[in-house]
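New to this. Explain these tokens.
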Amino acid sequence: MEFGTVTRIGRSVRGWSQGELAAAVTAANGRQMSRPTVTKLELGSREPRLPDAIVIADLLGFSLDVLKPGFRGAVDFAAPDGTVVRAAE
């Protein structure tokens, strides 16, 4: 599963818009991230910078293992209500 796909699913599970994720990343790492950048990351037309990938994974609760070449496997997300949502390829 690609980083962008995992990001999109995790963001949806949290109930965040792309703009809300961009604002949260900006607040967490002090570097500006825009909504169009989130769009590009989710579509796979832009690779994440490592500091941004770390913050996004932390905010959305997934492992950076998804960045490993050939990663195959399920990714679990904790929804705001405490339920676990599993995304599998």
